[in-house]
Amino acid sequence: MGKYFFDRVRDGRAEYDYHGRIFPTPEKARQLAELIAIDLEIEPDGRWLGWAVDVRNAYGERFFTIPVRASEMACA
Q1: Which structural domain range is residue 22 located in?
Q2: Which of helix, strand or coil describes residue 4?
Q3: What letters, b where the CB count within 10 A reaches 16 and e where it falls short, cover 29-60?
Q4: Distances from the Cα of 4 to the Cαs of 17, 19, 21, 46, in angstroms?
Q5: How far is CA 16 from CA 7, 44, 52, in A?
Q6: Are 12 and 5 in contact (CB under 8 A)?
Q7: Cα angle at 15 between 14 and 19, to 5 degrees?
């Protein structure tokens, strides 16, 4: 079990997750990061495009970075 933090980052800017969440494996944390990125992708104003979700531990070590991409649904 480990505590993971899901920060939104872009070009030296960050919105930090100060609470974090506990997961049994890093893969479970990665799955949540992917869902967060998808959720940000479908924001109607597109303000999160170009950002990413950094997954870090309590020591600040980065495990994953999941980019927020343009949503295919935005074209629908």
Answers
A1: 2-75
A2: strand
A3: bbebbeebbeebbeeeeeebbebbbbbbeeee
A4: 9, 9, 5, 26
A5: 5, 22, 12
A6: no
A7: 130
Would you state the structure tokens that stand for residue 58, as one six-digit string?
């309590």
pTM (two decimals): 0.86
What is the number of structural domains in the chain?
Answer: 1
Residue 64 makes CB contacts below 8 A (sequence gap 6+) with 26, 29, 30, 33, 53, 54, 55
Q: What's the token pair of residue 14?
A: 């960050």
Query: How does pLDDT run across 3-50, given as a tens digit for each residue?
Result: 999 999 999 899 999 999 999 999 999 999 999 999 999 988 888 999
